[in-house]
Amino acid sequence: MIDNEYYLARCRRFLAAQPHMRKLGIRVIQAQQSRVTLVLPVQSQLISEGLDTYLHGGVLTTLVDAASSASTLCALEAFELCPTLDLRIDHMRTPVQSQPLYVAAECYRVTRSVLFTRASVYQEDPSRPMAYGIATFMRPEGGAEDSLFARLIDGDEHATVD
Amino acid sequence: MQQLIELVADAKRSGDYQPLVDLIPYARLLGVQCVCYGEEIIFRLPASGDHIGNPTIPAIHGGVIAAFMELTAQFQLTLQMPQPGLAKIIDFSLDYMRAGLDRDTYAICHISRQGRRVGNCSVLAWQERKSKPIAQARAHFLLESENLQFKAD
Predict the structure, then answer these.
(1) Is B29 within 8 Å of A61 when comparing Cβ atoms?
(2) Boundaries of every domain in chain B
(3) pLDDT tens across B15-56, in order?
């Protein structure tokens, strides 16, 4: 039985290993089997001076992609580098720029070859989502294909990337 | 809002769309550029260490590629709207075909139908050659310029 702390640590290392996640300050706030919640904090580099709508153009997509792949880490026993096959996002509301964006993702089905995920993006109230996303990921044949990346995610302290 | 309408009008007049692109913070952060050849606009995502998702390949974060393509579609639709305003995304669906390596990425948007309220479009992204795309996407946008906020919220 893998406990939630283990998933949380794995997701933290996963985000920390990705320069773009560090650039946006995307953090994991909750992780359990098959599920993860990430947050995109309010930050000046994403705030538009003139426009309140539209500051997030594209950012929601990045957030959904990040959470969907993190949820696959919580659904697999060992880390596997699973490339995204497809991603679909429905935008239902415009987020406000004064509040952080949360995304909760779940990997709801694991097969021998494919992983299926769904995600919702919200601000104050999870029952009023800004967007829904679904994605599929391809599992590599024979486990993790990228052994250095796998060691980074599994917390091998000797694994480094310059 | 007024600033936006002016920028769209300016961009249409001068053919220089960069000020409009820079208005979207995430497009500015990613460093999205655009070059206009007549009616055809090619968008460029310059290689950057900040875009990396997999540091060991290294490969661009899938979300960055998706967001770049979404922004490409948004700008293309915005520029082709009969009345000034910002096209608003309804949905976006993306197929990843190859890993995006740590180099410049290009994207072009084709509008398949532009109605009064909704635009349908497809986007292709590539690196070395267009015949080997790294991803393709389809999207729908709301085009009503006065309706920048969804109603009944």
Answers:
(1) no
(2) 2-142
(3) 788 888 888 889 999 999 998 887 788 999 999 999 999 888
